């Protein structure tokens, strides 16, 4: 299978490069800068991309590549730090720029070239750098500039090495996709035939071989697309030796447990449900800090899962393998050894990479660890998983606990569940459920005065949030129609006792995050 490797120097956008390349039909993997030339030769990629990153190439501790990699005759595209690294390694001069560039810039193309083919004389691009190349290496030529940077794009004279100072992978570079297509198909010679759904039988065959000697295999199911797809893949491989376990934390959306049970019955997979609602509420009593909520939920989940796993072993016999619905985004963000993500910021503590394995001491199998969310959806559709699971809204690991600002109680959970259900019903009836990136409700820790009939009330306030995004790195609030907002607000205040005010969050990311906590 033809492939491309992306060397991650710590950019927040590295994941977006991989996603865009895969969307173009080319299988891409993210690797660490420590990768050796021998390993690259073994993998035999048709191209390399060097990501951006926060370091300065002239700093003593700046990450470098094995110099032998440059002698492999593989086409290389350096982006931001990657471009500066190429210039530095081949004898150019990189220094702190007189002016930093963050945000939109106008790129002026200086000469026709393969990488920037199809672009106009001037194009909008997204910059994020403080250093700049002040002098190109002798064997490189300049392809484009901006008002602040003399060398915003470059290539080696033999046409094998390319560099761009801007980020083609973000939505703010409108022609970025065209630039990556030029690199992949015109320079590297990819065919672009990779499709994740085509790999279903291959994944099942690998699982069958991998789990051939496992007596029982356990998976924790959440009702989301990742764990559901992983469960169906493993069930196809080993049948009833798979044990699917659903822990009801009491922090799920209204009807989530019942819906998941129905779907798994339809798929022919037995689902064991553990009612742990009271335990989780006790663990969260009096807690208001969002990170403390996450930690307590994670700890309690491990305890419940561990107890149930041991009980199942006593009843059914030994469990040898734990299956997790880990996807590629989880692997990248958790700083796995084969990526450069350890340079990135710490992620929220509810991530599903890690946690259970150390406590349960089972062998871990992650059938989806090489696929992004959209790719998992394609695989799930190929497996016949119902659309209600495939296209379900993203849901935080700690559930509604982090959509309840302040203390989590049974009453506040029940209230938010009903509010959330109304919002989702109205969005679906408006035909927008797949058009909006993410939408949800948040229960706020404030009260507001209301007039109900002839009396006054002092009720809860809920905030609605709907955002559109291509990659989750940035997001804009959705301009829902006034009619839709009016219907949602009217239903919530009339049908959910205790809610007297509904507000709509119109903050983009940045400065806000998508979730409130």
Task: Explain how this protein is built.
Helix 8 packs antiparallel against helix 9 and helix 14 runs antiparallel to helix 15. 41% of the residues are buried. By secondary structure, the chain is α/β, with parallel strands linked by helices. Helix content is 33%, strand content 24%.
Structure in a nutshell:
The chain has 15 helices and 18 strands. The chain has helices at 14-23, 37-43, 81-89, 176-187, 200-210, 225-238, 256-266, 277-284, 290-316, 328-333, 356-360, 373-383, 387-390, 410-429, 482-495; strands at 3-7, 27-31, 47-50, 76-79, 93-109, 122-135, 140-145, 153-156, 161-164, 217-220, 242-248, 271-275, 321-323, 363-365, 438-452, 455-468, 476-477, 499-504. A hairpin with a 7-residue loop joins strand 7 and strand 8 (153-156).
Task: Classify the secondary structure makeup into a structural class.
Answer: alpha/beta
**What share of residues is helical?**
25-40%
Shape: globular
Average pLDDT level? 90
Going across the biggest sheet, name each strand in turn: 2-1-3-4-9-8-7-5-6
Per DSSP, what share of the residues sits in E-state strands of 2 or more residues?
15-25%
Sketch the major β-sheet. Answer: 9 strands, mixed
Tally of helical runs: 15
Give the distance, in angstroms, between the N- and C-terminal Cα atoms.
41 Å
Extended strand count: 18
Poorly predicted sequence stretches spanning 5 or more consecutive residues:
340-355
* Cα Rg: 25 Å
Question: Which helices and strands occur, and which strands form pairs?
Answer:
Elements: E1 3-7, H1 14-23, E2 27-31, H2 37-43, E3 47-50, E4 76-79, H3 81-89, E5 93-109, E6 122-135, E7 140-145, E8 153-156, E9 161-164, H4 176-187, H5 200-210, E10 217-220, H6 225-238, E11 242-248, H7 256-266, E12 271-275, H8 277-284, H9 290-316, E13 321-323, H10 328-333, H11 356-360, E14 363-365, H12 373-383, H13 387-390, H14 410-429, E15 438-452, E16 455-468, E17 476-477, H15 482-495, E18 499-504
Parallel strand pairs: 1-2, 1-3, 3-4, 4-9, 10-11, 10-13, 11-12, 13-14, 16-18
Antiparallel strand pairs: 5-6, 5-7, 7-8, 8-9, 15-16, 16-17
Helix pairs in contact: 5-6, 6-12, 8-9, 14-15
